[in-house]
Design a protein that fits this description.
The protein has 357 residues and is an alpha+beta fold. 26% of the residues lie in helices and 36% in strands. It folds into two domains: 4-235, Rossmann fold (3-Layer(aba) Sandwich); 242-356, OB fold (Dihydrolipoamide Acetyltransferase, E2P), CATH 2.40.50.140. A six-stranded mixed beta sheet has the order 7-8-9-3-10-11, with helices on both faces.
């Protein structure tokens, strides 16, 4: 398969710099996701890898071959890649077999080789029994699998996927996430996936590259980024989180907006801090350090989504749905914190959160 080496790549459209010193390596056989909000530069980076855009500066290698940089530019058709776009882009007048066979027919492969390759890939994407159907006779998820099969049929070294599930409904998106991941594991192909959906990134990726304003804010496994975010932007973009102003003192953090209540703290920061707490990391406990009033609770079946009032602050607590019937709005509760993230208060938090909303 392929390794992608991105060496100090920049990209500007006139005065608008959309990528700033992108310097990363995507490893052979890895499922990499470039994640970020709209306009962050992730799709531009994917298009540079594909050969649809030229970098303003820096170099791009696929394996040991320089494909973009300086005076060198290898066109997309010579890079050994497959690509799946947001739109299905299947030919409406061709049946499934012919849609998938199209790239091989262009290369003038013989009929026997084409049939063998198409039969293999249709079996891989679970579409063998639909080979004779037209796209109009397929569901959205099946059409997206046709597009995936067409990209895979020539056995590319590298697969690029640009928001391929955004046009599907919620249930189809969920099932397709697992199907794409299973296909990647079966074939061992290197995948670079672009999305703004953090659930997709978490479910499918070996590593996530979280991009904002043209720069990689953090890279790592889903667990690393979710549990140990490099900055408040990363914490807020990946999963649910609430921020609270605090004062870090020796052995504790005091929350002025919570009436001066405090929680233990073993970190090294002192002075003003921003404390990020995920709702699932707060839980009800008889001996918890925070005391307040249960103001709201929403029964969602598997979870009880609660709001607890402490002074001027409303804390979100997500706990097991089985607790709903044992608690009532207005009762006094105590909270324990399983985990929290503490960042220096540089005065930029409110501006950052306003950009993301």
């Amino acid at each position: 398969m392929s390794t992608v080496t991105i060496s100090h790549v920049t990209k500007a459209f006139g005065d608008n710099v959309v990528l700033k010193d992108f310097n990363e390596t995507f490893r052979d056989g890895e499922f990499v996701t470039m994640l970020g909000p709209s306009g962050c530069g992730k799709t531009t980076m994917l298009r540079i890898i594909a050969g649809f855009e030229k970098p303003t500066g820096g170099e791009l290698y696929i394996d040991d071959q320089l494909v973009s940089g300086g005076k060198t530019f290898l066109p997309p058709e010579k890079r050994g890649i497959g690509m799946v776009f947001q739109s299905y882009a299947v030919w409406p007048h061709m049946n499934v077999f012919e849609n998938v066979a199209y790239p091989l027919r262009i290369k003038k492969q013989d009929k026997a080789a084409i049939k063998e390759a198409v039969d293999w890939v249709l079996d891989t994407v679970h579409l063998s029994r639909y080979a004779d159907r037209l796209p109009s006779q397929l569901s959205g998820g099946q059409q997206q699998r046709v597009a995936l099969a067409r990209a895979l049929v020539a056995r590319p070294k590298l697969m690029l996927l640009d928001e391929p599930l955004s046009n599907l409904d919620a249930k189809l998106r969920e099932s397709m996430r697992f199907e794409i991941k299973e296909i990647q594991q079966e074939t061992g192909i290197t995948v670079v996936y672009v999305t703004h959906d953090q659930t997709e990134a978490m479910a499918m990726s070996d590593r996530i590259f979280l991009i904002y304003n043209g720069e990689v804010q953090q890279s790592g496994t889903p667990q690393e980024i979710y549990n140990h975010p490099a900055n408040p932007f990363v914490a807020d973009f990946l999963g649910n989180v609430d921020f609270f102003k605090g004062e870090a003192q020796e052995g504790k953090i005091v929350f002025p907006a919570m009436g001066g209540q405090s929680v233990p703290y073993a970190g090294t920061l002192t002075g003003k801090v921003n404390v990020a707490i995920r709702p699932e990391n707060l839980f009800f406990a008889e001996e918890g350090p925070l005391s307040g009033t249960l103001e709201k609770q929403y029964y969602l079946g598997d979870v009880d989504d609660c709001r607890v009032r402490i002074g001027d602050t409303l804390l979100r607590v997500i706990t097991g749905g089985y607790l709903f019937s044992t608690m009532s709005v207005g009762q006094s509760v105590r909270l324990q914190i399983r985990d929290m993230m503490v960042f220096p208060d540089d005065g930029q938090l409110e501006q950052m959160l306003s950009i993301l909303t």
